[in-house]
Task: inverse folding
């Protein structure tokens, strides 16, 4: 019997109650008023799911005067009406009539909000349909809306992070000298499907000096006895992402490795101790960055300290130099300082923290490097 098999078989993703999505949709009129918009036209799959709980690769949510309406094609319309009974769902016009349909709908529109990360094809179609309308990119406002996780979202993300910890425990026990980075990454991928709905991103496994490549692609490099290993991993569970980086050694780590690891880990702890509502994101980044710089490794820490996560693995805000966002309770952000010395080693320690009313809670429970 496979000792790493889950207690229960893998399950399809579960959605939050539709009342959660209704609350989100009700925020759209306030956004329109704030930006003086006649309408919002939202098309990206992640924002459509965030607002409606519906997954479709061909849909548009129109929020103008009257009831917000979810338009989608024949393939999804029955599903949409079943899953979102409180949302007006209509059959989308044929592709050849797209411009005419939008033009007719928007005869009186002058300012329309859209997502700046839609494809160029979709943007050009929008411009063609509404040539005299001022298009306003509302991506930042939507990201701000998504940045504070509701209690329901927090519960789901706790589950994803706990699943990630379980997979790491199994991976740590499975790793043996002689296997390759690719084999270890494939093991994680298998376990992520057993305990969740797959990887939140492509798993990073770095043996020895490959750790100096921050986003190393696992290959046929073999793990050796006494060698350090860096694993950056995330499980997706019920649509939400987890993320964590841990370092371990297939044997006893060298004194030099332990000393550098200690700098990274203490930078992580120093930043976490400072996290609380009202702090500015860039100031949290500076705390960890200054700690590593004082230890003499400032030039070896070249990426930001962390990022928010949720439906996507990288969301806003983040702990990065210059980020002026003020922390609020309900934000979930990674803290992941690192030191990378090409040809020698790479070390990163990453936790997910939840900003609370008085400070923060570390949700990642996997232990640090063993001595």
Result:
């Amino acid at each position: 019997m496979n000792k790493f098999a889950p207690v229960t078989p893998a399950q399809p993703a579960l959605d939050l109650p539709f009342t959660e999505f209704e609350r989100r949709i009700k925020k759209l009129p306030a956004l329109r008023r704030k930006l003086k918009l006649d309408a919002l036209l939202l098309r990206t799959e992640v924002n459509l799911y965030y607002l409606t709980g519906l997954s479709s690769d061909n849909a548009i949510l129109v929020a103008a005067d009257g009831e917000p309406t979810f338009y989608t094609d024949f393939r999804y319309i029955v599903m949409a009406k079943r899953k979102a009974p409180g949302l007006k769902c209509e059959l989308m016009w044929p592709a050849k009539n797209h411009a005419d349909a939008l033009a007719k709908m928007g005869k009186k529109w002058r300012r329309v909000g859209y997502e700046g990360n839609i494809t160029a094809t979709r943007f050009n179609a929008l411009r063609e349909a509404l040539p005299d309308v001022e298009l306003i990119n509302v991506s930042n406002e939507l990201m701000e809306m998504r940045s504070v996780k509701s209690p329901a979202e927090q519960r789901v993300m706790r589950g994803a992070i706990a699943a990630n910890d379980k997979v790491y425990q199994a991976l740590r026990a499975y790793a043996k000298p002689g296997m390759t980075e690719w084999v270890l990454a494939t093991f994680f991928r298998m376990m992520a499907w057993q305990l969740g709905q797959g990887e939140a991103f492509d798993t990073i496994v770095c043996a020895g000096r490959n750790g100096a490549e921050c986003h190393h692609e696992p290959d046929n490099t073999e793990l050796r006895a006494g060698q350090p290993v860096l694993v950056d991993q995330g499980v997706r569970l019920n649509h939400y992402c987890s993320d964590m980086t841990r370092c371990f050694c297939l044997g006893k780590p060298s004194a030099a490795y332990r000393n550098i690891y200690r700098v990274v880990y203490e930078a992580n702890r120093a930043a976490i101790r400072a996290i609380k509502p009202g702090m500015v994101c860039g100031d949290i980044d500076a705390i960890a960055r200054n700690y590593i710089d004082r230890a003499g490794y400032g030039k070896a820490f070249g990426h930001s300290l962390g990022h928010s996560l949720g439906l996507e693995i990288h969301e806003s805000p983040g702990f990065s130099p210059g980020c002026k966002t003020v922390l609020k309770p309900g934000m979930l952000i990674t803290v992941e300082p690192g030191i990378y010395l090409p040809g020698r080693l790479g070390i990163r320690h990453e936790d997910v923290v939840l900003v609370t009313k008085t400070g923060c809670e570390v949700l990642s429970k996997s232990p640090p490097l063993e001595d």
